[in-house]
Amino acid sequence: MSEGKLSTNHLLGIKYITTADIELIFDTAAKFKDVINRPIKKVPSLRDITIANLFFENSTRTKLSFELAEKRLSADVINFSSSGSSVKKGETLLDTVNNILSMKVDMVVMRHPAPGAHYFLSQHIDAQIVNAGDGTHEHPTQALLDAYSMKEKLGTLRGKKICIFGDILHSRVALSNIYCLKKMGAKIRVCGPPTLIPKHIGSLGVEVSYDVDDSLRWCDAANVLRIQLERQDIKYIPSLREYSMYYGINKQKLDNLDKQITILHPGPINRGIELSSDVADSEHSLILQQVENGVAVRMAVLFLLANLRGDRAA
Fold first, then answer.
1. Same fold yes or no, 14-137+291-313 and 140-290
2. Cα dihedral sign for 239, 245, 246, 248?
């Protein structure tokens, strides 16, 4: 499938991989996208690999996407959810994972509420770790599929203007997107209410704006994030209605532009708040393409990591 090798044994975050790694993942994902659009959608690439999906936070799209990617690659899959498990009885993360590893698991795909949980595990266990989201830190495969979808639409990311709108403060997607798009040569701006923009985010080399209309005029693509109410222990905005009025993106705002821009959203969408339905369902939206590309990108990540495992075993 691919002759290239990743520079790292784990996918802990975009911060830890190179531009060459990203391009290799994209090239491999393009080949897997052809596979999943064939009548027979499975390949035997990971036939001898066992993957455990450990989700310590709720997830629908990411969990289903990883599971489908694993099954398309013919891997053996173990699904673990913290609800109803011994975690509720006080078992530590390391004990939980070691118990699962005793079942001879090769790879762990994990979502965890604690930033850095994946790095901690990578230092203590032999299995390869894929970060499916850690707290408000990173969500690398989401950033990869977002960037892949934009590149597919725009032809290249180098020099393109990408604006990330919404709740930047609580978003692991925003941070991973910034790292990924910077490595691909894009120009990045973040836009949202001042209370939802981290104070020192400019140090990452991004522009900061509080003006939605100006940012829409500026960008080639808009990646719109949802308001993460579940991560907010205090109120950062007066009301959802007010947020929608000032920071929501609707058809009228897009019609006022003298160009067409591409719209992305990692999901789930709060329709009528950060994005109106007539924008989410329009021809400018890549939201459904993001879902399809998510499976191909995750297949690529798992396949390339498994190749490294084979090298280590040899």
1. yes
2. positive
